Amino acid sequence: MEASMDATPFPAWSWSVEQCLKEYKVKLDKGLSSYDVEKRRERYGWNELKKEKGKPLWRLVLEQFDDMLVKILLVAACISFILAYLHGNENGAAYQSIALVAACISVSCSCQVRHAPGCC
Fold first, then answer.
1. Residue 1 predicted with pLDDT over 50
2. pTM of this prediction?
3. Between the CA of residue 107 and those of 52, 65, 101, 116, what are the distances in Å?
4. Residues 3 and 44 in one domain
């Protein structure tokens, strides 16, 4: 059962606390000494996961336009623009409201994608 730090790691997750303490030569009430901590950091590195680089926000926003619902809304917006123009609606309220709805959907979808676990 005794293995040195130079040997392959043992399956600590499947052993009892007492077995792990004995294997790593650690006392439960004191833990590792500063020297042991530095020695193990030199050998194994910091106990950290590397953070994967995510997609930039502008790319997430552009990817939302690949969604079928957003495409349908954009087509509806274009039709509404054309109808408003043909009927002489020059106040721009239709243009602004449709642009606002499309922007809100895009931002909302981008936020959902950005905060989804395991995504990007």
1. no
2. 0.34
3. 23, 11, 10, 14
4. yes
